[in-house]
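Lab notebook, bench 4. The sequencing result for the construct came back, and we need a structural model before the next group meeting so we can plan mutations. Quick request posted to the team channel:

Model the 3D structure of this chain.
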Amino acid sequence: MRRLLKNVSLGVTVFVMAISLTGCFGSNVKYQTNPIDDILENSVARLEISIDWEKFGSSNEVKGMAFSDGSDVTHVGVRLEYPSESAAYMQSVARDPAKSQRIITMEVSPVKTTKANLYLLAVEHNHDKDWTRNRARYLGVYGPFVLQDKNVRSIEMDEIRWVEACWRVSPGDESLIYVSDPYRPEIGEEIGWNQSFVGIDGTANIGANIEYRGERWRKFYDVDFGGGRGHGPYVDGQKFNLPLRNGGYLIEQQAGS
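Done. Here's the predicted structure in token form:
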């Protein structure tokens, strides 16, 4: 399916208390800023994700990856999905120069009979008015895992699998590109635009995931975003409760591709 994505608006209203919305991921999407103990009545599981800002700018390997240039990461958004329940929870945090670490706390409904997936997006967000100057830097995944009722699950950065946000051109065919996409890992998986976290500002057809050098990449073909017709691949920050309200976080081209 071919889609025109020009000057995309990705606005969303964030509420302090969790609410249900009809959205692109089924019928239950919940936004949280400050979790409240009784927000989900008596049945609550707590998820605590540790974000160590200094690790983004270090050469230390995290899950086999060295953050080459992470000092410019300003925000991290997280998205917890229960695929079988068509439910998602989202929250984000901003970097505080006075603190080297932040804990993202989410209180969610435990589902004992199914597994959850956690997705993360680390971005450089310095421009509210000009979305084309913001960047997606790192994409993270954790899971699948089970959240038990009234339990606390702590996740450290070292436990998350991170990949650099980048895209590359297919040799000999500039209309075919591949964008890093660990979020939907099934090889050969065909999905619609509304299911993908990765999009194109321009025109393109969305294809299946492939594996290349041990990583997952989303294929886009018949791509055209040159000559002012668009800005290229981006990650939809709305799906991670990130602050950008107009456009996505652009992904930079892989060096040498």
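The chain is about 0% helix and 45% strand.
Will bring this to the meeting.
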